[in-house]
């Protein structure tokens, strides 16, 4: 019997299950273990929120979380109480039932889409081992259980988290693609459990007698801890390299077999599936305050009506009409209070929240389809992952940016290196790092010209073939990174040539040659690069590379044939007659085909390196340029070509991967030439230099080269090695194996083990890699600073590199004063901050005395390292750091960890109360992106973790200017004004009912139809705000881009500030007074009934509210004038017809009055129309005068010039953009006639 089937197994308990997980084959005969496996979840997934039975109660419960829904349900129920009912109870149910039904219908549609996706995924097939049939059979994914053995082939998707037990690769290696999990297309290497007894043999599940103990399910994709205990009691440690994750794809491996350890919702992929992001915008938080004020206003109105009704009831001694004398006046006033709550319910906008969601969806649609935010090279457009914070894009005050891959391309080119203290500049390689993205398009245009000439003149019939091929070649290659095109340095090349040609003129010393060889050997093997070739079964990337190679071959062949056929021996172009006499030589043709075949073989033999970071790829290609080529990798060995030696198999003993704590990675190998155990280490210079020998002339020279590289803006890495004695290695190996097999504190033990090994290193040299700026980064930063946005750079690079990049992208200018904070202790940090604050304040005082600007402190730039930043974030120094940083024009935080990045963003957001935006492209930026009010991910070279964690995803940093300055400005302006309009129209209409109470004894009666009252918000006035919120543009896009100052000006002048609420309420009070009392005095003394009196009031109110929106709209005066006017006019007419037809539809809705025919009778009199026109004009005239004057002032060339000049004055003092100090394409030139033309 298997050792895993002992009935007395102490681990097979439910208590043990809660602590860690035990996995055995699912066909085990041990009943206790079988019961334990049944406790684990199956592989069936369910992402739907509802079931058939739970939908109604669960959906209603979720909708009751909205205060507005609870409020209107309460009002509908209150209307069923006879003593307080205002109109027929059934009518009061219509709006809330309609809103709840529409929301429920939307939830049903969304959940049904999730249901179809779940059904599709659960129905996928895979091959699972059946103990009864003794073979693998097809099963649906949903039927896979923990303990099942799954057989997968190349290009198949992994159905559950499995422990890799067998691979068809002879070295026990498997390659997976994690694009479905984290978006990364580069291959990851996984390996069979080490020391597995059946490794290298054909695997049969029946022979598996081991037990797996591992940690409980968690969402950490990079961590897996556990051990496998064999039948002989030997334990083998398990790690993340042994785990195949659900939704990944098998690549470059024919067959793999694994045992399922996590299934269904316990897999790491499902535990990381948090769904779409939802955030509350700042505008919505302000909206809640305004809604509370509306509630207060409603309470005051109802209380006034209650007191008035009580006084009115108390004033009757002997009434000539029937009055309820049995109810005390106080009780009657109490009843009227609740009646008025029902009557005036329109004051609380039930449709506002729904309208805001619809408007945001429309805004996102237009952002998503903006062609200026589309990247043609990557075929990528902006992704809007957060659906409810579009308006926050228009309120950003602080922008926190990563450097590498965000401001720069993150496409690394090996530029320089220093070995044995000797620097090799690689000047030719530095010149070749630039490429021209528009060359291919230029060739395409030239080709079109020649194609046209061909139809006109037959002499050009070969030109267009040539240019077609050149266009295809350049267009295909123009987007490729030239990282692998490393031009060797001549001096270094001559030294390496001595290995193959001992007669070389330059003879290096044996030690220097050893350093050089080990340096490039370390570049080739100290990495996690996966090696493959285009002719292997590949994923999409390799297919593309293969196509590129074929295009290159085709271009070469056609060029050769073209030149041979078209150029004669005399050097002139052959004519068509010459071509007729040309005969083909069979030998020459055969030789050409042989040469072509040789070229094809050489190109298809090209190696493809799949690196986890561009740095690794650049270093491996650099090593290959010096003929130190990595040709293959397995779990236990590396195949490397060395110059003068040939191919060598290097035994790979251990890999100590890179982590953010150590900031380095190491490989432990047995040197192929000496047989010694050697540790090769690669990492940040700030760490490696401290771990090398205390004194060394090589170290001093290398440090000078590092400083020079940093000043040039290069990314630097140090290469070092350490030779271990056998007994020293054995001692370390025992402790390391113990750490690997540990479940508790495994990461900490592995970290300590790596640190014990990486000491007393021998410095080999350093590398300098260039990472050029993205296009239009200086212009984008200048525009953002002119918009009043402070730009901070949070990077893990060294200080000199970050400062150099800051100068390159115009974040810093030559006249800016750097405040450097590099402290060795916390006390020194506190003293330095106080001194810097005094220095900044002194600059302010000097500026105030001269009167030349706003604040001289804006020209100060604070630069701090990671250690100082850590102290600055502590409670004791936090206030000083905030005081200093907020007075500076920009802040650059170097050597900062991912945690520090997020802490900085959170500190500024919470303590300064400002809107923050964080932008990054890598996994180390995820925490910063999630903490910020708005997180933006850039889909770059470091995977998709930042994109998947962001609110918005863009492909280039330059897209931020259009996203913030244009779309952010529009979205904020639209929503802020739409909310104000909603409040205005509700207050205006409710006041009409309130004024009427003064003439009906505060009895709660209304002068309008109940249907009109209920549907006023829901239908009659719902479309215009939606049109306004989606389409309105207060300024055109090109003006907003050319004048970024308008971004900040819109926040300070037209923002949704508290006092605007009361201005809107006062305007609504005025219009309601006009709308009520003009018809009142017009019909005074007549015998019109209640509904007849209300007809002109309702008609006038509808026209006033809709025309008010027309006056406020800026888009109406531009291209969409005709369209929106038609929309508004059609909506007004249709709603008027609906309004008057409703009265004929329901003849018992306003008892005891019969509304049938009242509106038709009123519309037959001229007084009705005169009253409506006079009321509308009198009500809107102040609003029109105010808006027209405001627009003349706000958007006139004079005002824009004033705004720009004001910003320019602040720029002269250093704030915002360096326009006054740096050369920038955003020089402000305002042309009055041009602006007038744009604003027409």
UniProtKB/TrEMBL annotation:
Q: Where does Mg(2+) bind?
A: 402, 404, 921, 925
Pfam families per the UniProt record, alphabetical = Cation_ATPase (PF13246), PhoLip_ATPase_C (PF16212), PhoLip_ATPase_N (PF16209)
* Catalytic activities: ATP + H2O + phospholipidSide 1 = ADP + phosphate + phospholipidSide 2; a beta-D-glucosyl-(1<->1')-N-acylsphing-4-enine(out) + ATP + H2O = a beta-D-glucosyl-(1<->1')-N-acylsphing-4-enine(in) + ADP + phosphate + H(+)
Q: Where in the cell is it found?
A: Endomembrane system; Endoplasmic reticulum membrane; Membrane
GO molecular function, one example? Answer: magnesium ion binding
What cellular component GO annotations does this protein have? endoplasmic reticulum membrane; phospholipid-translocating ATPase complex; plasma membrane
The membrane topology term of the UniProt record is: Multi-pass membrane protein
The record's section on CDD domains has: P-type_ATPase_APLT_Dnf-like (cd02073)
Q: Where does ATP bind?
A: 402-404, 616, 658, 682, 715, 795-797, 895, 901, 924-925
Broad class of where this protein is predominantly found: membrane
Q: Which stretches make up the P-type ATPase N-terminal domain?
A: 37-91
Q: Note the InterPro entries from the entry.
A: ATPase_P-typ_cyto_dom_N, ATPase_P-typ_P_site, ATPase_P-typ_TM_dom_sf, ATPase_P-typ_transduc_dom_A_sf, HAD-like_sf, HAD_sf, P-type_ATPase_IV, P-type_ATPase_N
EC number(s) given by UniProt:
7.6.2.1
The record lists the membrane-crossing segments as 67-85, 91-109, 291-312, 332-354, 442-466, 513-531, 543-563, 981-999, 1011-1031, 1059-1083, 1090-1111, 1166-1185
Its Gene Ontology biological processes?
Answer: phospholipid translocation
* Cofactor(s) required, per the database record: Mg(2+)
Gene3D superfamilies reported in the protein's UniProt record: Calcium-transporting ATPase, cytoplasmic domain N (3.40.1110.10), Calcium-transporting ATPase, cytoplasmic transduction domain A (2.70.150.10), HAD superfamily/HAD-like (3.40.50.1000)
Q: Which UniProt keywords apply?
A: ATP-binding, Endoplasmic reticulum, Magnesium, Membrane, Metal-binding, Nucleotide-binding, Translocase, Transmembrane, Transmembrane helix
**P-type ATPase C-terminal domain spans which residues?**
947-1188
Active-site residues, Swiss-Prot/TrEMBL = 402 (4-aspartylphosphate intermediate)
PANTHER family, per the entry: PHOSPHOLIPID-TRANSPORTING ATPASE VD, PROBABLE PHOSPHOLIPID-TRANSPORTING ATPASE
Q: Which family does it belong to?
A: Belongs to the cation transport ATPase (P-type) (TC 3.A.3) family. Type IV subfamily.
Q: Tell me the protein's name.
A: Phospholipid-transporting ATPase
């Amino acid at each position: 019997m298997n050792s895993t089937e002992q009935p007395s197994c102490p681990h097979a308990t439910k208590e043990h299950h809660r602590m860690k997980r035990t996995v055995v084959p699912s066909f085990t005969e041990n009943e206790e273990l079988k019961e334990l496996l049944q406790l684990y979840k199956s592989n069936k997934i369910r992402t739907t929120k509802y079931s058939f039975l739970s939908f109604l109660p669960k959906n209603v419960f979720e909708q009751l979380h909205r205060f507005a829904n609870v409020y209107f349900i309460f009002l509908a129920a209150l209307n069923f109480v006879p003593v307080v009912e205002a109109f027929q109870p059934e009518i009061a149910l219509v709006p809330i039932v309609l809103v709840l039904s529409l929301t429920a219908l939307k939830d049903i549609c969304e959940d049904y889409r999730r249901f179809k996706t779940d059904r599709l995924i659960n129905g996928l097939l895979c091959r699972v081992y059946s103990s009864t049939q003794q073979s693998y059979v097809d099963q649906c994914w949903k039927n896979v259980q923990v303990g099942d053995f799954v057989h997968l082939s190349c290009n198949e998707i992994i159905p559950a988290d499995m422990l890799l037990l067998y691979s068809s690769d002879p070295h026990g290696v498997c390659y997976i693609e994690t694009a479905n999990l984290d978006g990364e297309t580069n291959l990851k290497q996984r390996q069979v459990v080490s020391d597995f007894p059946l490794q290298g043999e054909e695997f049969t599940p029946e022979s598996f007698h081991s037990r797996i103990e591992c940690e409980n399910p968690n969402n950490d994709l990079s961590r897996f801890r556990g051990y496998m205990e064999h039948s002989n009691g030997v334990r083998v440690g398990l790690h993340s390299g042994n785990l195949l994750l659900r939704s990944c794809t098998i690549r470059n491996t024919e067959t793999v077999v694994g045992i399922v350890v996590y299934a269904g919702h316990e897999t790491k992929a499902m535990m990381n599936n948090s769904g779409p992001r939802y955030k509350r915008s700042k505008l919505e938080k302000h909206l809640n305050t305004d809604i509370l004020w509306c509630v207060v206003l409603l309470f005051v109105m109802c209380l006034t009506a209650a007191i008035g009704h009580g006084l009115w009831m108390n004033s009757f001694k002997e009434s000539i009409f029937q009055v309820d004398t049995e109810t005390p006046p106080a009780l009657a006033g109490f009843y009227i209070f609740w009646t008025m709550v029902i009557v005036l319910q329109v004051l609380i906008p039930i449709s506002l929240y729904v309208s805001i969601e619809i408007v945001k969806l429309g805004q996102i649609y237009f952002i998503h389809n903006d062609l200026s935010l589309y990247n043609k090279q990557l075929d990528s457009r902006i992704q809007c992952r957060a659906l409810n914070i579009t308006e926050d894009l228009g309120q950003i005050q602080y922008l926190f940016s990563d450097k590498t891959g965000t401001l720069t391309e993150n496409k690394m080119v090996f530029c320089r290196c220093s070995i044995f203290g000797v620097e090799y500049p690689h000047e030719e390689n530095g010149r070749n790092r630039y490429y021209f993205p528009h060359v291919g398009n230029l060739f395409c245009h030239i080709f079109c010209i020649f194609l046209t000439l061909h139809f006109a003149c037959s002499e050009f019939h070969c030109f267009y073939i040539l240019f077609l091929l050149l266009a295809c070649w350049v267009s295909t290659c123009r987007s490729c990174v030239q990282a692998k095109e490393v031009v060797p340095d001549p001096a270094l090349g001559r030294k390496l040539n001595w290995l193959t040609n001992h007669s070389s003129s330059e003879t290096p010393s044996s030690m220097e040659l050893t350093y050089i060889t080990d340096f490039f050997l370390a570049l080739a093997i100290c990495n996690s690069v996966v090696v493959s070739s285009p002719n292997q079964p590949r994923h999409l990337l390799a297919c593309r590379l293969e196509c590129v190679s074929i295009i290159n071959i085709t271009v070469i062949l056609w060029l050769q044939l073209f030149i041979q056929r078209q150029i004669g021996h005399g050097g002139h172009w052959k004519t068509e007659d010459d071509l007729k006499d040309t005969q083909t030589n069979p030998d020459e043709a055969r030789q050409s085909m042989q040469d072509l075949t040789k070229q094809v073989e050489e190109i298809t033999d090209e190696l493809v390196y799949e690196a986890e970071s561009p740095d690794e790829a650049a270093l491996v290609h650099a090593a290959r340029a010096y003929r130190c080529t990595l040709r293959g990798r397995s779990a236990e060995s590396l195949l490397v070509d060395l110059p003068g030696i040939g191919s060598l198999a290097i035994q790979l003993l251990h890999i100590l991967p890179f982590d953010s704590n150590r900031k380095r990675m190491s490989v432990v190998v047995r040197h192929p030439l000496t047989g010694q155990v050697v540790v090769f280490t690669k990492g940040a210079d700030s760490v490696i230099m401290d771990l090398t020998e205390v004194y060394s002339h090589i170290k001093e020279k290398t440090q000078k080269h590092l400083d020079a590289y940093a000043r040039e803006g290069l990314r630097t890495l140090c290469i070092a090695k350490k030779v271990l004695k056998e007994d020293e290695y054995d001692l370390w190996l025992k402790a390391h194996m113990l750490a690997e097999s540990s479940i508790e504190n495994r990461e900490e033990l592995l970290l300590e083990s790596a640190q014990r090994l990486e000491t007393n290193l021998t410095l080999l040299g350093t590398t300098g890699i260039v990472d050029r700026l993205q296009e239009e980064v200086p212009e984008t930063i200048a525009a953002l600073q002119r918009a009043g946005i402070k730009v901070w750079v949070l990077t893990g690079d060294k200080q000199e590199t970050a400062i150099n990049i800051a100068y390159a992208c115009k974040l810093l200018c030559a006249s800016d004063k750097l405040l450097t904070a590099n402290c060795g202790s916390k006390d020194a940090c506190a003293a330095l901050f106080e001194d810097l604050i005094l220095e900044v304040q002194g600059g302010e005082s000097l500026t105030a005395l001269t009167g030349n600007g706003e604040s001289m402190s804006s020209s100060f730039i604070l630069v701090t390292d990671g250690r100082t930043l850590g102290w600055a974030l502590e409670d004791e120094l936090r206030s000083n750091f905030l005081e200093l940083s907020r007075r500076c024009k920009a802040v650059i935080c170097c050597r900062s960890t991912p945690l520090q990045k997020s802490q900085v963003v959170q500190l500024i957001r919470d303590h300064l109360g400002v809107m923050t935006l964080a932008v990054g492209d890598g996994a180390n930026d995820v925490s910063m992106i999630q903490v910020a009010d708005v997180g933006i991910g850039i889909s770059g070279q470091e995977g998709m973790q930042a994109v998947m964690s962001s609110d918005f995803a863009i492909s280039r940093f330059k897209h931020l200017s259009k996203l913030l300055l244009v779309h952010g400005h529009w979205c904020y302006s639209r929503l802020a004004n739409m909310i104000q309009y909603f409040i205005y129209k509700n207050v205006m209409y409710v006041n009409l009912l309130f004024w009427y109470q003064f003439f009906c004894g505060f009895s709660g009666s209304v002068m309008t139809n109940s249907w009109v009252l209920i549907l006023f918000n829901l239908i009659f006035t719902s479309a215009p705000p939606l049109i306004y919120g989606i389409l309105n543009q207060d300024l055109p896009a090109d003006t907003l881009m050319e004048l970024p100052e308008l971004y900040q000006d819109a926040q300070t002048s037209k923002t949704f500030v508290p006092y605007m609420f009361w201005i809107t309420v006062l305007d609504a009070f005025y219009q309601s007074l006009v709308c009520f009392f003009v018809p009142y005095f017009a019909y005074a003394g007549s015998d019109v009934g209640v509904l007849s009196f209300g007809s002109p009031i309702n008609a006038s109110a509808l026209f006033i509210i809709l025309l008010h929106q027309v006056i406020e709209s800026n888009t109406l005066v531009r291209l969409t004038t005709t369209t929106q006017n038609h929309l508004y006019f059609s909506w007004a007419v249709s709603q008027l017809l609906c309004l008057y037809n409703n009265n004929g539809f329901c003849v018992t809705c306003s008892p005891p009055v019969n509304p049938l025919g009242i509106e038709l009778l009123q519309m037959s009199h001229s007084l009705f129309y005169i009253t409506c026109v006079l009321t509308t004009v009198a009500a809107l005239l102040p609003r029109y005068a105010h808006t027209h004057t405001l627009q003349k002032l706000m958007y006139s060339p004079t005002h824009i010039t004033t705004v720009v000049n004001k910003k320019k004055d602040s720029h002269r003092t250093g704030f915002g953009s360096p326009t006054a100090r740096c050369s920038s394409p955003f020089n402000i030139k305002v042309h009055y006639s041009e602006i007038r033309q744009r604003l027409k």
